[in-house]
User: Which sequence fits this backbone?
């Protein structure tokens, strides 16, 4: 019989998490205006708001922290990280940034112009926002499978306006799903045919590579670093939020195959992030990242990582709770409509489920539904999102199997009590990105 797939590490340093009572949580959520973003993290038992910058570093990374060279220009830590990134990506030109969205901003400012169009499978919110801020159209072309004629169409129509094509691995907006190597290859060929560079958003490149190894014919025996190298080989450059598969709490970078854009990139970088050998990070951050990037590609770690999401999926399936299938790499996306089928969309079922998970078990997830993507119109009416999801995103190397078992029990219990789960109304909201700061009240209050 196959044995339990265990966490491939042991714990050296622990951080207590605080149990609260249901009545305490009721008060805390009330004070937070029924918006879990406004909770103090200390009042959360299991924090699955994001997998970004929230993971545990290894003892090797903490050791490397002490070796950080804090020189302003030409620090040893920069050259060490540069060598690691060159080896992993096969690309030569690298600059650090303080996180992923800074890499996006610097690259887009340096090489795009107003009126351009940038296609992607799905742009992440910050990628879209950084493009739109510069007057560039962010085009989402996610499709069911492979490359379909609809994907090619925009190139025919808008060829002159496309500075480069993008692809996001894994697709965070689309349920944490991986992109197949065949797809990356075909997209690269298509872009090449039209003479367009190919930029990858590679926050979760290691998880994507592991999915390729597990699911795509021909890669079963290929080592992860070789799969990663092949993925990067098709691209001309990449932006990275190192807070994900870089296994660090802060950091990002831009890496490019050719030097052509580097002058422009460095100029913007110096204006907004810092000198090109530190890019808004401390020397110690560069050291931790140099170690983290390699640890994130270890196969036993990745196998365990993908298994945690799959395991929670199995528990949800058994409890009759729907979710985006198959489970992605970094998160499970619960379909709130399967838990609260009777709740009207106007009462924001995914938001209601998020609140219920906190009240029931101190778990914090994030709503990806009509609060995040819906809009209040000038006439006071609302537009709603097509899906009502709650994303539970897992910090790396942080929660053990018993945390996942506990979460599965809480979710199943919430489903049992569905009839008593209360919907919400929005009482105060900003014009943009309302989910972060909006205030809510119970509809039945
Ligand atoms: N691209 C993708 C695909 C992302 O998921 C993120 C961040 C970014 C870019 C931006 O990187 O946060 O370092 O500036 N995603 C986080 C999340 C915030 O919760 O999914 P950043």
Assistant:
């Amino acid at each position: 019989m196959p044995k339990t797939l265990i966490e491939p590490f042991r714990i050296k340093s622990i951080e207590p998490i605080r149990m609260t009572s249901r009545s305490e949580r009721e008060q805390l959520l009330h004070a937070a205006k029924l918006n879990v973003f406004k909770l103090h993290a200390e009042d959360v038992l299991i924090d699955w708001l994001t997998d970004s910058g929230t993971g545990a570093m290894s003892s090797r990374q903490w050791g490397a922290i002490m070796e950080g060279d804090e020189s302003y220009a030409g620090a040893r830590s920069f050259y060490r990280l540069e060598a690691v990134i060159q080896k992993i990506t096969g690309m030569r030109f690298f600059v650090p940034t303080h996180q992923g969205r800074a890499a996006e901003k610097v690259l887009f400012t340096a090489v795009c112009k107003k009126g351009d169009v940038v296609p992607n499978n799905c742009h992440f919110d910050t990628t879209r926002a950084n493009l739109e801020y510069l007057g560039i159209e962010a085009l989402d072309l996610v499709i069911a499978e492979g490359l379909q004629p609809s994907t090619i169409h925009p190139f025919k129509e808008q060829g002159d306006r496309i500075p480069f094509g993008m692809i996001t691995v894994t697709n965070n907006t689309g349920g944490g799903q991986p992109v197949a190597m065949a797809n990356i290859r075909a997209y690269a060929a298509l872009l090449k045919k039209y003479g367009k560079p190919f930029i990858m958003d590679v926050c979760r490149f290691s998880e994507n590579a592991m999915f390729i190894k597990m699911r795509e014919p021909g890669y079963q025996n290929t080592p992860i670093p070789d799969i990663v190298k092949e993925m990067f080989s098709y691209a001309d450059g990449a932006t990275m939020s190192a807070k994900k598969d870089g296994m660090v709490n802060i950091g990002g970078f831009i890496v490019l195959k050719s030097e052509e854009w580097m002058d422009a990139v460095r100029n913007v970088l110096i204006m907004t992030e810092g000198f090109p050998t530190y890019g808004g990070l401390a020397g110690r951050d560069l050291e931790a990242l140099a170690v983290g990037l390699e640890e994130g590609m270890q196969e036993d770690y990745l196998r365990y990582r993908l298994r945690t999401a799959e395991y929670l999926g199995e528990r949800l399936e058994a409890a009759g709770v729907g979710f985006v299938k198959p489970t992605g790499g970094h998160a499970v996306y619960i379909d709130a409509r399967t838990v609260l089928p009777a709740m009207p969309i106007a009462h924001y079922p995914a938001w209601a489920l998020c609140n219920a998970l906190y009240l029931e078990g101190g778990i914090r997830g994030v709503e990806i539904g009509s609060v995040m993507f819906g809009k209040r119109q000038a006439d006071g009416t609302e537009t709603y999102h097509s899906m009502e999801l709650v994303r539970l995103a897992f910090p790396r190397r942080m929660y053990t199997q018993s945390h996942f078992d506990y979460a599965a029990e809480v979710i199943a219990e919430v489903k049992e009590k569905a009839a008593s789960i209360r919907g919400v109304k929005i009482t105060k909201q900003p014009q943009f990105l309302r989910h972060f700061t909006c205030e809510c009240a119970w509809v039945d209050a």
Observations:
- Residues 299-318 form the longest helix (20 residues).
- The pocket of F0G is lined by residues 50, 52, 99-101, 124, 126-127, 168, 172, 201, 203, 241, 243, 252, 393 (CB under 6 Å).
- Confidence is low (pLDDT under 50) at residues 145-156.
- The longest strand covers residues 93-97.
